[in-house]
Design brief:
- The chain is α/β, with parallel strands linked by helices.
- The chain is built from twelve helices and six strands.
- Helix 1 runs antiparallel to helix 4 and helix 3 crosses helix 4.
């Protein structure tokens, strides 16, 4: 039997601890990005939103580099990408701290901050003998801490792949995916399945020969069961095999994932 390896993005795919990061980043960009004379506020907002999400799945330092470049292109004097990164992390950090504190205090359960059915899905896959990995653009130390906060360590152990730090520009999901394939000597067609809400992990998994599933969870109203259609469109165009809003209907589609096993 050839063991299947399931690769999960973290933010928005399993965890909601950082949900809303895009809105935090968009607000930051709108504060720093100079407006063009012919540009409406809505046009500038739409452009910034598209730039941010085009880089989703990569470490956020790349988005900060894009912000710095864009400010310069518009005639402004940008901060360094590292300074923008520190500013973004401070803003997002306040949101994360409130959420993790609420878990530790018992105000909210860990599952409140997970995509609906996520823990049950991981349990189901592990029971079927699937090896589970996290591949995230969020720095590995942060993801590792959040894995422990949500009580998911037993599922992933140390199979957490990501940048070493906030300014690590060397990490790429392409390299991580292909390293896993090489390390475990996998046939990606039958042994690699990725779940993600970012274009990067979908594109790179398909390019490596694996299968990719779009997780288009509603991050505005958690656990609503609704598909985020804008995510779904992007991810299906990137090569996803099909899309899900969460993991509650897993028994209707999990057989086709495990069939090759």
């Amino acid at each position: 039997m050839n063991q299947i390896h399931a690769l999960f993005d973290w933010d928005g795919t399993l965890s909601f601890i950082r949900a809303g990061w895009g809105e935090v980043m968009l607000k930051q960009w709108m504060e720093f990005l100079p407006a063009l004379p012919s540009e409406t506020e809505q046009t500038r907002t739409d452009l910034a939103h598209n730039e941010i999400w085009a880089l989703n799945g990569r470490p956020s330092i790349h988005q900060m580099q894009r912000l710095a470049d864009w400010i310069q292109e518009r005639g402004g004097s940008p901060r360094t990408p590292e300074a923008f990164q520190a500013d973004f992390q401070a803003r997002l950090g306040r949101v994360i701290q409130e959420r993790t504190d609420s878990i530790r205090s018992g105000l909210h359960s860990a599952d409140h901050f997970m995509v609906l059915g996520g823990r049950q899905f991981l349990t189901r896959l592990r029971g079927a003998g699937v090896a589970l990995h996290i591949i995230s653009g969020t720095p590995r130390p942060f993801v590792s801490e959040e894995v422990d906060i949500l009580g998911l360590r037993d599922f992933f152990a140390e199979r957490i792949h990501g940048p070493l730090s906030l300014t690590d520009t060397a990490f790429h999901k392409r390299t991580a995916i292909r390293s896993i394939i090489q390390e475990y000597r996998l046939n990606p067609i039958t042994q690699v399945i990725a779940f993600g809400d970012g274009v990067t992990e979908i594109v790179e998994t398909v390019a490596a020969g694996g299968r990719a599933i779009a997780v288009a969870a509603d991050e505005e109203v958690w656990h609503s069961g609704r598909l985020d259609t804008s995510k779904e469109i992007r991810l299906m165009a990137a090569g996803a095999e099909f899309s899900v809003s969460d993991y509650t209907a897993m028994e209707t589609w999990i057989p086709r994932l495990l069939l090759s096993n």
